[in-house]
User: Fold this.
Amino acid sequence: MSPANMIDAPSQTPVTSERSQTRRIPASGNAGLAASGLIQAALGVEFFLSGLNKFADPEFVRNFRLFVDASPGTQTGLLAPLVHAIVQPNIAFFADLTKFIELGLGIVLLLGAIEVGRRRLSGRIAAQHGYEAPVALVASLAGLGAAGLSLSIALLMGEQLPTITPGRALTTAIPIELLLVPLGIAVAWMEFGRFRVLVRR
Assistant:
């Protein structure tokens, strides 16, 4: 059974294999999808609040400039030429763009998580609607966007791959920007799987 067949399908739905044998979708599929929705909601809250924090900062453009100028990735690394050629000469534009992107990603991820949670309920509230497939696709793209933005920030900050580091004994072993990357990819994977199933109905 392909993973796509396990997404948003009732736990007792019979599925016919290539050998014409009837199998049942594991009941744990709903629990797994609900857990994925919770991760998506947390990711959405992170980006939503991060975007609002930037809007609330009256000196954000100045602070963004200081952050970019002082970041190790501005001096060396994969992004350094791009930062020097494009970002720094247009710092105000990219500061505003960052605010809107983070806020937008947060909203889309939260809406997608609400849809995942709604379909886990019973009764009329869990009824299928025509908008679900487009929402799942957009949420999948938002997951990729969150992963890409987080990776860019991690590279800009010069974050290293996780290792045993005594200096991080009282903080997260994995820098938060790097931790958000696989979470964003996981959300994108899950939502794209939902999209594939929903468009076939």
The radius of gyration is 20 Å. Helices lie at 28-56, 60-70, 72-75, 80-87, 91-119, 132-156, 176-199. The chain has one domain: 34-199. The first strand starts at residue 14 and ends at 16.
